Batch of 4 targets.
Target 1
Amino acid sequence: MSLAGKIALVTGGSRGIGEAIAYRLAEEGAAVVLCARHLEPAAGVAKTIEARGGQALAVAADIGASADADRLVAACLDRFGRLDILVNNAGITRDGLILRMKDEDWDAVLSVNLDGAFRCARAALRPMLKQKQGGRIINIGSVVGSMGNVGQANYVAAKAGLLGLTKALAREVASRDITVNAVAPGFIETEMTAGIPDAIKQAHVTQIPLGRFGTAAEVAATVAFLASEGAAYITGQVIHVNGGMWSS
């Protein structure tokens, strides 16, 4: 799955699944641009990649804003001169039952999790098309985008929309040798799930045939494959990484 010579952009790359993806793509030889709302944590990941012999650039950006998505891609081009792989991973949660959910909580989640992916894809496609050498766009969805989840209507709607965006965009750019796929993780061991009470966590585990939560590294491995030449004939697909919890 060598990605030597490739330039990858990972949103939300400062922690959790995004951090693991950034490290894995760098291990496969890609130069990695990673963004987060705050520069310091992203810069820490970039420094680790460089300490391991890779190339990396950290950028502070709020992808919920079109100008920031454009600036993020521009920073990638300024540093590395091209863009081959976009991983739309950035996401936030503002949980609550629909009857109690405020407009601003709905809007904030859709703005980052769905609108942000659209804006970054639009910005990334311009150099990808100009390069005429193909490309990879990989969207990070969620199992709840397929099965739903109580108290997360905004997050579920955004992730379900992301799957639709994946399939539509895949058809639009297939003739230009650009593939677009989604990876939909289930319950993954991250800082976010670490706060789940043990009793609730165990209840979730009983619904997973493999009997455990997944790891961020396992999600990252799937992303690395989709970014590689080995996945050149895969597009418009949703790859579920959930231990058998859900299949479609």
Target 2
Amino acid sequence: MEKKEARLRRARLTRARIKNAGVVRLTVHKTPRHIYAQLITPVDSKVLASASTLDKTFKTELGYGGNVKAASLVGKAIAERARSVGVTRVAFDRSGFKYHGRVKALAEAARENGLTF
């Protein structure tokens, strides 16, 4: 459990810094088979928009949700949904995961489609 505890510790530190900034946060969570993204308000922690590889729109495009291609599609979707809600500036909360692979692909796809962080 040391690996998970270290990730959760990193996540707590990041969330504390983001909370002080008072910005909408883009939270990412990943499992070996799927990746999830949410936009969460800073004050009352309400979810403004979400996207994941479990969405029915991705089921036809993706055969497997645990790869970089799937993560980039989720990043594109969350950026479009953020624009529809009226959010353009976010803080990136990677939930303690390393900025590499699927997390990086999601972040870059979100940036390319209009989110700034």
Target 3
Amino acid sequence: MKLHAAGTLIVITSLSVILLTTVCYILLLNNLWWVNLIFFALMFIIGGMIVRFFRVPYRITNVVEDGVISPADGTVLSIGPAFEYEFFQDERIKISIFMSINNVHVNSYPISGVVECSAYHPGKYALAKLPKSSVDNEHNTIVVAKDEDHKILFRQIAGFVARRIISYPEVGDHVEQGEEVGMIKFGSRVDVFLPLDAQVFVNVGDKVVSKKTVLAYF
């Protein structure tokens, strides 16, 4: 387990503010013991949550040659046909994965291949569970091609809490299944677009794990 580099400044700043607030509270206020207990517990919980947001657990990738593994931790929100308007411009199977604030927020590549598209789109911060968030919200679209017949598009989508998407891919990059893509600060949603003939191996409501859970097979 380690902290993501993107969270270092936020963690240090937040813990410094919490520490300063605690010191000022001790020096300036003299409340009842149970009030003090509540305050210290609250500071501890806030600090712990901030650190937890940026955790990166050590995982060995479940390499599946003909499979598509989950790019995110979370819960399968929906599965079904959808028109992919940005890159393929045709019908695809879309799997939406909702990332809560309790999930690991680091994303990974679902397949190995070459990055054919990496496009950032500014937008709104509506609730990530809403269908329109896939288009209206701030998002980053990534397409990875294993070969001409096996291409996957997945989209990092910011939500109501998430306010920044970090994404490292550049067009032409050769990437490996399970390699880090980036992260969505404080969680949100990832949509995966599969070919119509893909065999889906998850159901709505399933808990999925980045680098581990097989979403589908080509």
Target 4
Amino acid sequence: MDHIYLRNLEVEAVIGVHAWEQRIRRRLRFDIEMETDTRSASDSGDIGDTIDYAAVADCIRAIVTREPHVLLETLAEEIAQTVLERFHARSIRLTVGKPGAVPGVREVGLVIERGRA
């Protein structure tokens, strides 16, 4: 199977469990890998036959900036489900990083993998 990916997408967000975190914007970093079949796009040369990675990036930016979030887990799940539904990916592997969230640690975060039901 084929994979379309976006690496190191950075978006400013309001996210965190502490009250002070809900008053500031911080950078989040995303790596997205989507499983799909690219053969029809290869044959047609039509962007409509594949996953438009610019549209995926715009979608993630819209979700992240729409409202404050508390947990990375909640945000990651919303992004994964939206991408699966809207872009018809067979599966998604999503990494969400929160640089500088813990003193002495370059980045914390999580990786989730979801597939179509």
